[in-house]
Structures are given as C-alpha cells and as structure tokens.
Amino acid sequence: MTVMSNWGNIWPLSAPIKLLHPSVATVSAILAYVAVRFIYKQYFYPRFFTPLKHIPLAIPEPPSKTGKEEVTSSRKLITSLKHAVATVPNNGLLRFYGPDTNERVLVTGVKALNDILVLNASSFVKPESVRRRLYVFGGEGLLLAEGETHKVQRKSLMPAFSFRHIKDLYPIFWTKSRDLVKVLEHEISEEGSSKSDVVVIKTWATRTTLDILGLAGMDHDFQFLKNPQSTLVRHYANTQIPPARYEILLGFILSLFTSNYEVLMTKIPTARVRRLNEGSKYIRQLCRELIQEKRYKMDKPDSDQDVDIISVALRSGAFTNENLVDQMMTFLAAGHGTTSHALQWSVYVLCKHQDIQQRLREEVRDRLPSISDPESVITAQELDSLPYLHAFCNEVLRFYPSIPGTVRQSTRDTTVAGYQIPKNTTFTIPMGIINQDPKLWGPTARTFDPERWLGEGRANSGGVENHLGFLTFLHGPRSCIGSGFAKAELACLVAALVGRFQMDLEDPNGKVELNQHGIGTSPKDGVRTRLKVLDGW
Ligand code: HEM
Fold first, then answer.
1. Is residue 83 very low, low, confident or very high in pLDDT (cuts 50, 70, 90)?
2. Which of 480, 494, 519 to mutate to test ligand 1, by most ligand atoms within 8 A of the CB atom?
3. Cβ-contact 498, 364 below 8 angstroms
4. Is the pLDDT of residue 234 over 90?
5. Buried b / exposed e across 95-129, counting CB within 10 Å, b at 16+?
6. Mind listing the pLDDT tens digit for each residue in 27-67?
7. Which of 108, 109, 291, 466 has its CA 20 to 30 A from that of 276?
8. Is the ipTM above a cut-off of 0.85?
9. Quick one: which of 231, 441, 239 has its CA closest to 340?
10. Own/partner pairs, 507-510, CB within 8 angstroms, 24+ separation
11. How far apart are CA 478 and CA 474, in angstroms?
C-alpha cells in the first residue's frame, strides 16, 4: 500500500485503488449514515411514512420573506409559520418539520385548541424535553405537576391568586413601581451610573418584577432595584445564554436519531449546562431558606395573617417543605421574566406610538395619585377604573404575548378536531399566531390598536369571535394561575412609567430583533429607551 505523504496529490487520476485508514472509514460511514437519516427524515418520512399524512403540510417561509412586517413577539419559526396558517387550507391542524427535522403539529383552530387545552387536557402533557428545561429553574412545582397531583396543588394555591387576595397586593405593586421610577430618575441624572439619559428597560424590569415576586410571593424584600449586583439576577440571566455552535450541531445530529435529543443535550455537561445547574442549586437553596424563615415567623403566637403566596400555601397544609420550595421556584421563574417581557413590550410600543403614550399619560395623571408622592397608595378599584390603561395593557398582552408558543404531547391515541392522533404526537400551540388571527379578531387583527378593548361589552374580550382567540395565558386547567397578578402588576408599572417619563427609543427607526432564548420573548437589546422626567405629577 502506498503511504500518502502529499495531501495535494490525494486523488491523482492514475492512482491505484487504496484502502482507507480505519478511522477515516468509520467517520465516512457515520457521515453517510447521518446523510441517509437526514434524507429519510426530511423527504421520505413526511411524504410516505408518517401516521399524520392526513393532516395538511405547512412549509415554513424562509425568514427573509417574513422580515418585512412589523415584528411581533413570535419566535422566528412561529413567525414563518404564520404565512402557512393563512394560506394552506386546514381544519385546525397543520403538520410541519422544524430545523431539527422532528415532526410537529401546529394548532390553528379553536376546535382543536378546545380539545387539547380544555375538553381533553389531561391527555396532553408537556413533553420530557420541555419539562427538563423548565425543571432547572422552576423545580417540580405547579407548572410541571400532572394528573391528580396537579389538581390538588392547583386547588390549594388558587386562593392566593383569587381577586379577593390579589387586590391586597396592589399596594406592593404600586410601592415597587415608585421605587422603579425613583431608580430610573437617579439613573438618568448626573449622578447615575450610565451618565446618559438612555436606559435598558430590561435591566430594570427584571429587577422590579423579581422584587415584586419576593414581596408578594414570600414576604421578602430582595431589594434588587437598589442592589444591582445580585447573584439571583445573574443566574436568571444565564438562562438566556444561547447554545454554542457545537451544541447546535450536536443537537441537530442527535435529532436525526431520536426525538428525545433535547433531553440528551441537558445531560451533556457543557459549560452552559453546568452554569444552569449551578443556578438551579443556588435558587433552590435561597427558596429553602426563605421558606424556613417564613415558617418560623408564622409559628410565633402573635403573627399576622400575611397575604403573600407562600403564607397562603403554608396555611393550606397541602405542601411539604420541599414541595413548597418547588412551588416558590416555579413562581419566581414563571412570574418574573414573563411580566418583565410584557413591560419591555409596553415601553417599546409606547415609544413607537407617541399618540398612545400621550393619551395614556393624560388618563393616568388625571385619575391616579402622583407617583412622586411618597405617601401615595392606590386601591384595586382606582387602578381598575382606568379604561384606556386597561385597554392598552390588554392589547400589549394580545399583540406581544410574552410566551409566543408552547408545546404539548399526546399521552394516548386520541382525536383532535376530528383527526386521529397517535400517542406521542407533539403539538405546538402558537399563541403569537392565534392572538393575531384575522378569522378571530377581524381585519385589524395584525394592527396594534387598544381601541378594540373599548366600547360596549369589549373591555374583557377585545371583540374577539371566540374567547380561545386570546391565548396569552392559555385556557383550561393549565392556564396561567398568575394572570390576575400579572395584569395588575403590569398596569401599575406602566401607569407609573408613562405618568412620570417621556419615553423615546434611542434608535427610533432601528429594526427590532428578538431575544430567542430563555422563557418568553422580548426585544434583544432590552429596549434602549431615552427617558425625560416630566414634572407636574
Ligand atoms: C405577563 C405575564 C405572564 C404570562 C404571559 C404568563 C403566561 C403563562 C402561560 C402561557 C402559561 C402556560 C404554560 C404552559 O402550560 O405551557 C403559564 C402558566 C403558569 N404561570 Fe404564568 N404568565 C405570566 C405571569 C405569571 C405570574 C406573575 C405568575 C405567578 C406569580 C405565573 C405563574 C404561572 C404558573 C404557576 C403556571 C403553571 C400553571 C399550571 O400549570 O397549572 N405566571 N403562564
């Protein structure tokens, strides 16, 4: 056998046939197998072998074709599927294949949504890959519990989220909104750390929503607004680190062999996975200590009937200490980023629509006590009686849902919207698409317009054809338990900001890019906003 020393001369036309080195042969065989798997999964399986052939096929639009419309909070794939939903005839379900080549079913109609989320909800659970991802920061709390355990947990926690209880939390929302305004006023002043009148809304929104959850959820003031160097904030920021290129490539290759590739990926100790696990440990320990503190306080004979979520859960007697730790982790994870995203979108859209900003400011200044008054308090009744604020917040939640899509997997053979569905079929529920569906919201569905929530009988429906058309908090037994909490919190924060500041984007004509990692979606730059204090309120 000739030993090849000259790589430039590997394939001379006259070369004799040579045997490949065993390692080259192995790599070639693996590459050939990967190629064959890819062709099978991309071409043959969808056309000839899938048991879901009876569901129409959607081809996602290439991103370049979808970039022209005003950006919504949908992730890229969901945005690119919007076109398919509008153009491929379907009866509420569409089949599609994402970049990882795995098969999914997109839910596009209210009948199918009703089957999956309401009528038959117990037959559709979060797939293992999603559970793994949520577990790291959310523990084994309400978000991940299934079956009877979920029912018992939800029933025991519901009192903490009833309006009767949420209305007692408005003073916390208002006090923290005032802290936010004060910190931002300082930030844009001469003494501020940035020495500029431009702030990154995300930085402050995240700290405020964590502070609010600390107080309203655990009766503990983290004071992250005042103390920016927080380990907790840093650990949550780590959830948004995108996977490295090699992780994406590895994920893609694994996806050709198993639909559980995402589960496998969480077991490979890459630097990113290690950092996530460290964060998870830290948050668990923090919650454990806070709950112990709370239990100690409640055991005192003269203790008050505190209104925070953990006190209500402890009084219910339904949870062990460790399970309470999981619940607290869930509330922190599910409750702070989502509301922070909503606040970021609110500021973004107020900057884009100065007429709306002006009108909202007039209503707030007219009807609410000044945020600069350190003694000012507001009641639920006062805040909830501002129709334009209510309309604006609802429209932000509709148009820019913090979580633009979620996933479910069938646990048995079943039917959805009349289609036969085998066990283990994965469904994507695209809140970002349904919330803007012209069939449900009329011809102005894709326009941001708070007016739709004003007028006779529209305050709670926005005039939608079917209540399942507003999917921001989902519906049914797995809907967001914190929706009332989040809406009241968002209204306070928006009122305080718009009442006190003139807001403009640093780059008013810049194209907004989306943050694609972590729970939920918001602008990648965190909404860089120029603030100007407006006196007189
Ligand atoms: C704008 C803010 C919020 C949005 C858009 C939002 C959205 C959602 C959505 C879409 C789900 C369902 C996820 C799924 O099952 O796939 C959910 C579940 C949940 N959310 Fe929220 N959420 C928000 C704020 C909050 C807050 C403030 C809390 C707690 C204080 C909270 C606690 C939860 C919990 C515990 C669940 C699981 C409920 C269950 O499975 O029974 N959320 N949320």
1. confident
2. 480
3. yes
4. no
5. bbbeebbbbbbbbbbbbbbbbbbeebbebbbbbeb
6. 888 888 888 888 888 888 888 899 999 999 987 665 444 44
7. 291
8. yes
9. 239
10. 508/351, 508/352
11. 7
Residues 154-182 have pLDDT tens digits of: 999 998 899 988 999 999 999 999 999 99
Which is nearest to 525 in space by CA: 536, 514, 533? 514
**365 Cα–ligand 1 center, Å:** 31
Amino acid letter, 228: P
- What residues have CB less than 8 Å from 379, skipping those under 6 apart? 167, 170
Evaluate if residue 1 carries a pLDDT over 50.
Answer: no
> Is 403's C-beta closer than 6 angstroms to any atom of ligand 1?
yes
Residue nearest to atom 26 of ligand 1 (CA): 335
Q: What's the distance, CA 151 to chain centroid?
A: 23
480 a known binding residue?
A: yes
Q: Is 331 in the pocket of ligand 1 (CB under 6 A)?
A: yes
Atom of ligand 1 nearest to the CA of 141: 35
| Nearest residue (CA) to ligand 1, atom 5 | 402
Cβ(112) – ligand 1 distance below 6 Å: no
Integer Cα distance of 367 and 385 in angstroms: 9
DSSP 121-155: GGGEE--HHHHHHHHHHHTTSTTT--HHHHHHHHH
Which of ligand 1's atoms lies nearest the C-alpha of 341? 1
CB of 481 closer than 6 A to ligand 1?
A: yes
pTM here is 0.89
Q: Does domain 46-131+406-435 have CATH number 3.30.43.20?
A: yes
**Tens-digit pLDDT profile for residues 118-165:** 999 999 999 988 888 888 887 889 999 999 999 999 999 998 899 988
CATH class of 139-403+472-533: mainly alpha
**Closest listed residue to residue 422, CA positions, set 409, 431, 433:** 409
Mutation to probe ligand 1, out of 338, 431, 489 (largest number of atoms < 8 A from CB): 338
Predicted confidence (pLDDT) per residue in 183-225, tens digit: 999 999 877 776 789 999 999 999 999 999 999 988 889 999 9
Residue 426 vs residue 29, higher pLDDT: 426
Residue 14: pLDDT over 50: no
Model confidence at 68, pLDDT cuts 50, 70, 90, reads very low
**What is the distance in A from the centroid of ligand 1 to the CA of 141?**
12
Give me ligand 1 centre to Cα 283, in Å. 19
Q: Is the CB of 473 under 6 A from ligand 1?
A: yes
Residue 478 Cβ inside 6 Å of ligand 1? The answer reads yes
When the pLDDT of each residue in the chain is averaged and rounded to a whole number, the result is 87
Q: Which residues, 6+ apart, have CB-to-CB distance to 217 below 8 Å?
A: 308, 309, 310, 328, 331, 332, 335
- Asked if 138 contacts 333 with a C-beta cutoff of 8 angstroms, the reply is yes
- What are the residues whose beta carbons fall under 8 Å from the beta carbon of 510, sequence distance 6 or more? none
Distance CA 309, CA 328 (A): 9
Domain residues of the chain, as ranges?
A: 46-131+406-435, 139-403+472-533
